[in-house]
């Protein structure tokens, strides 16, 4: 390791400490303010199960309750949020969106979309649930590597900026291994878990959340979301999906046609097979085996 490498690592650690300190100072205030705002505009139910005994929680997902959609970084959160916004527009519904992991969904809006949701955080603060959008963790790593290397903006994201400088000095295989570590961090962003951390912590036994795979969107995101919402989906207009396909978002490319300069780089559900190093594949298969067995059993096979 030369002096430049050491300075990069030291800079990253300093940035992490600053971010962690700021997050610690602000997290309680942010959470309390969000909860206070929501508590003034929604009927509360007594809490049950996990969480502070006797506390009140916001209710989501029921027939007369606000809708909630949650996702994670590199799990089609941008595409999904755009579709949900359009859904709100055509149905004259109010929309709330946020990308922080310590955000409470809004009881003052008809629909909330949380792009970097944390199950442990939400489970202590809401009753009910919503639609949970996931992606094969192998493709999360593959997509995150290229995004963090050259595509995702770094404005105001000092931790990601430091990660990019590290990736720029690594081989592809080294960079993908470091991307696994980065996406497994609980402080991937202040008060926000990385996508692999969030997927590992999610309680998939909680049937208040209906999990859908982004790989199933294809040209039918409307049917996927409507099916997850259940019976009350019939009360709404679901926008046509043609503007929310990979082809539409990528400028007309078919899935698998790669553009290294596009945030929608590949779109092929098996891209990881030809791009991830064997060691990373083995690691994900072992440590995310329950998730893969349940939602992506084919990913456990060579």
Please tell me about this protein's structure.
By secondary structure, the protein is α/β, with parallel strands linked by helices. The protein has two domains: 21-136 and 199-247, no CATH class; 137-197 and 255-296, no CATH class. It is 45% helix and 10% strand. The protein has twelve helices and eight strands. The protein has helices at 3-39, 77-90, 119-123, 137-151, 158-167, 172-183, 195-201, 221-229, 246-249, 271-275, 278-287, 289-295; strands spanning 45-46, 56-60, 67-70, 95-98, 111-114, 126-128, 131-134, 210-213. The strands form two sheets. Strands 4-5-3-7-8 form a five-stranded parallel β-sheet, covered by helices on one side. Strands 1-2-6 form a three-stranded mixed β-sheet, with no helix packed on it. Helix 1 (3-39) runs antiparallel to helix 5 (158-167) and helix 4 packs across helix 6 (172-183). The model is unreliable at 23-55 (pLDDT under 50).
């Amino acid at each position: 390791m030369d002096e430049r490498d050491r300075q990069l690592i030291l800079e990253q650690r300093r940035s992490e400490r600053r971010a962690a300190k700021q997050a610690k100072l602000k997290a309680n205030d942010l959470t309390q303010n969000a909860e206070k705002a929501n508590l003034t505009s929604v009927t509360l139910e007594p809490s049950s199960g996990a969480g502070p005994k006797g506390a009140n929680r916001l209710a989501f997902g029921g027939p007369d309750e606000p809708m909630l959609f949650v996702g994670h970084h590199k799990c089609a959160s941008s595409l999904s949020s755009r579709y949900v916004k359009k859904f709100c527009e055509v149905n004259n519904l109010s929309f709330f969106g946020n990308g922080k992991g310590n955000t409470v969904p809004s009881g003052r809006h008809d629909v909330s979309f949380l792009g970097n949701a944390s199950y442990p955080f939400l489970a202590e603060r809401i009753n009910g649930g919503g639609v949970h959008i996931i992606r094969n963790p192998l493709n999360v790593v593959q997509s995150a590597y290229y995004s963090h290397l050259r595509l995702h903006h770094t404005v105001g994201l000092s931790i990601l900026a430091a990660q990019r400088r590290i990736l720029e000095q690594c081989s592809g295989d080294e960079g993908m291994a470091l991307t696994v570590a980065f996406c497994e961090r609980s402080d991937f962003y202040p008060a926000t878990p990385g996508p692999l951390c969030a997927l590992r912590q999610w309680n998939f036994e909680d049937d208040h959340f209906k999990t859908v795979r982004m790989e199933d969107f294809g040209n039918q995101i409307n049917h996927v979301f409507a099916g997850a919402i259940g019976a009350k989906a019939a009360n709404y207009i679901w926008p046509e999906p043609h503007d929310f396909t990979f082809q539409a978002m990528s400028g007309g490319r078919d899935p698998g046609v790669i553009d290294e300069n596009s945030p929608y780089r590949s779109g092929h559900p098996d891209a990881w097979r030809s791009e991830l190093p064997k060691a990373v594949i083995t690691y994900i298969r072992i440590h995310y085996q329950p998730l893969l067995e349940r939602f992506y059993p084919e990913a456990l096979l060579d």
